[in-house]
Amino acid sequence: MTDLTVNGQPVRYRLAPETPLLFALRDVSNLTGTKYGCGSGECGACTVHIDGRAVRSCRVPIAQVEGTMVTTIEALSRDRGHPVQQAMVAEGAIQCGFCTAGIVMAASALLAANPQPSDADVAGAITNLCRCGVQPRLVRAIRGVARGDGAILAVPPPGIDPADAAHAIPALSAKP
Ligand code: FES
User: pTM for the whole thing?
Assistant: First the structure.
């Protein structure tokens, strides 16, 4: 058995210790926003936060996450209005969408740890693969969040209440 916290809820998985965290999240907890891509730690589609760090969950045996706090894309923001999500929509950095959740999780962890990343910081932290080729737009989106780009504030994505969006942006975009 493995006890941990997933998206703020205590969870006990009764799985073989070598079971990848990704399978526990998707197949047991039905948190299917986290995607299975390569299964070998290369693509980043399975990225989640473990104690605030971006981790590729396909390569993490469940036994290694005992007592940790895991966050998936479903809990990153209550309204899908996280600044990274808004910025990626505003920049057109979402195409087929398969890799998007992993990229958002990686970018949000980067900005939480380093609110003013350089292009080199972004390149080093966001190694997720995207076959649609959004990387240049992705870098612009992340740098826009780091700048507290007003254009992002002005155009929340469809379905996001502008008041919620305006509330969400300053939390991450505040200068140190
Ligand atoms: Fe985990 Fe590709 S599915 S890195």
Answer: 0.84
The answer as to whether 154 is a domain residue is no
Domain assignment present for residue 100? The answer is: yes
20 close to ligand 1 (CB < 6 Angstrom): no
Domain that holds residue 95: 83-147
CATH of the domain at 20: 3.10.20.30
Ligand 1 pocket mutation pick from 40, 98, 100, 129 by most atoms within 8 angstroms of CB: 40
Structural domain ending residue among the three candidates 21, 51, 76: 76
Q: Could you read off the pLDDT tens digit of each residue along the chain, which spans 176 residues?
A: 999 999 999 999 999 999 999 999 999 999 999 999 999 999 999 999 999 999 999 999 999 999 999 999 999 987 778 999 999 998 999 889 999 999 999 999 999 999 999 889 998 999 999 999 888 899 899 998 988 765 444 444 445 455 554 444 443 333 33
Cα distance from N-terminal residue to C-terminal residue, the chain = 41
What is the C-alpha to C-alpha distance for residues 130 and 68, in angstroms, rounded to an integer? 29
Question: Is the CB of 56 within 6 Å of ligand 1?
Answer: yes
Closest residue by Cα to residue 72 from 139, 22, 17, 114: 22
**Mutation test residue for ligand 1: of 42, 55, 73, the one with most atoms within 8 Å of CB:** 42
Q: Which two tokens stand for residue 142?
A: 């992340």
Atom of ligand 1 nearest to the CA of 57: 1
